[in-house]
């Protein structure tokens, strides 16, 4: 993600101090160091594996003295930063050409003073806590793997935790081998073995569901590229590791009916709220392809006459509504519609001419007050406009309508 003007807005301190020189390259570098552009992601466990780019953390807190900063090659961070930092960026070889480093780093070797709560945090969860949301479908024990770049003895430790708990089993991920290169480790530092042994760092996921993985500072200057959780004891990552296991959203179903209706109290579907079968032989059929009532104009006896369907209101409390009739336009003709309340005509409507078959048309019936037992009748007719030849005659529109919409008055 490129540095955008949006990310500049949040930079009150730097933006004010650099207000006159905001477009210089030095300033751009400073901005990236100080206020990284973070891609927030939702992770899932997939076949027992969770793969996370460390730089895609969701939140960071307790970061007043030390802070995880995102280094990103595409943002051109290749100069020494504005914070104490003895080593150059290591984006080359990092997964996604990006990683996080905890800065400032003012303890590079044993000769520099060790200050608890500043350049060293022996207790997990006390400094620079970042989080990653993960959905697990399989509970169980997950080995924690980290991919880090260490250049000395005082930049090679990390703490992990889950759901607000920094359990002993996930503290002190340690990197001894593989200095000056991106290296995977799952080794827990213990008093009896400072380098630890492989696959000794883990979290227990007690229940399937949404969880929060946490990572916090142990030593300043530490750099983390990627995190893997695996429930397979035989698994060992190599290279940059697999791709991130991200939750990918699929497209939601868009509405196909009542398209122009954006609010309503009740929808009275023609086919489900109305009685259309118990009337005489002159009755509607259900056009299941379009989900509407229609008149079988193939039967000459049903052409050019009004067919009816009834709805009986059954709500105890009388209430006023704005009423709308939703019909379908047709190429073959402009059907007419009537809406009646207890036999009294409320409105008459005619479909407009159309170039597209079966588009919804919405007619305003007006205000109605409905009480229990009221009967609403909708009528329509099958007509031809003489434009579409069909055999010896022209095709008939079928008086299709989708339903009535009742909207709250206020
Ligand atoms: Ca550095
Ligand atoms: Ca350090
Ligand atoms: Ca470093
Ligand atoms: Ca990375």
TrEMBL record:
Q: Which InterPro entries does the record match to this protein? A: GH115_C
Q: Which part of the chain is the Gylcosyl hydrolase 115 C-terminal domain?
A: 118-244
Keywords of the record: Signal
Give the signal peptide as a residue range, or say none if absent. 1-21
PROSITE patterns, alphabetically? Answer: PROKAR_LIPOPROTEIN
Its domain of life reads: Bacteria
Can you name the source organism? Answer: Paraglaciecola aquimarina
Name listed for the protein in its UniProt record: Gylcosyl hydrolase 115 C-terminal domain-containing protein
């Amino acid at each position: 993600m490129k540095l955008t003007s949006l990310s500049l807005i949040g930079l009150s301190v730097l933006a004010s101090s650099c207000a006159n020189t905001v477009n210089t390259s030095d300033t751009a570098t400073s901005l990236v160091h100080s206020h990284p552009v973070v891609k927030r992601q939702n992770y899932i466990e997939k076949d027992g594996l969770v793969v996370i780019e460390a730089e895609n953390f969701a939140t960071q807190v307790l970061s007043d003295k030390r802070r995880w900063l995102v280094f990103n090659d595409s943002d051109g961070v290749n100069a020494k930063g504005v914070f104490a930092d003895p080593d150059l960026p290591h984006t080359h070889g990092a997964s996604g050409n990006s990683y996080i480093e905890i800065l400032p780093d003012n303890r590079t070797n044993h000769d520099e003073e060790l200050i608890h709560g500043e350049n060293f945090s022996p207790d997990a969860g006390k400094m620079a806590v970042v989080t990653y949301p993960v959905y697990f479908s399989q509970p169980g024990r997950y080995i924690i793997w980290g991919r880090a770049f260490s250049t000395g003895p005082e930049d090679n430790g990390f703490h992990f935790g889950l759901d607000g708990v920094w359990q002993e089993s996930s503290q002190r991920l340690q990197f001894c081998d593989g200095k000056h290169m991106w290296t995977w480790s799952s080794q827990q530092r213990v008093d009896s073995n400072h380098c630890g042994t492989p696959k000794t760092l883990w979290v227990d996921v007690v229940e399937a569901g949404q969880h929060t993985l946490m990572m916090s500072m142990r030593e300043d200057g530490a750099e983390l590229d990627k995190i893997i959780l695996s429930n397979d004891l035989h698994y060992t990552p190599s290279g940059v590791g697999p791709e991130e296991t991200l939750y990918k959203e699929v497209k939601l179903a868009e509405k196909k009916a009542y398209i122009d209706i954006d609010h309503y109290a009740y929808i009275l579907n023609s086919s489900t709220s109305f009685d259309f079968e118990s009337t005489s032989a002159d009755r509607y059929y259900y056009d299941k392809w379009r989900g509407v009532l229609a008149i079988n104009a193939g039967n000459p006896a049903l052409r050019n006459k009004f067919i009816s369907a009834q709805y009986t209101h059954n709500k105890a409390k009388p209430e006023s509504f704005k009423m709308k009739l939703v019909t379908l336009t047709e190429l073959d003709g402009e059907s007419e519609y009537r809406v009646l309340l207890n036999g009294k005509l409320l409105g008459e409507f005619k479909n407009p001419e159309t170039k597209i078959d079966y588009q919804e048309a919405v007619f305003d019936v007006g205000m109605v007050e409905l009480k229990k037992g009221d009967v609403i009748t909708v009528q329509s007719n099958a007509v031809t406009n003489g434009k579409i030849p069909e055999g010896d005659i022209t095709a008939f529109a079928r008086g299709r309508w989708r339903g009535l919409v009742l909207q709250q008055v206020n």
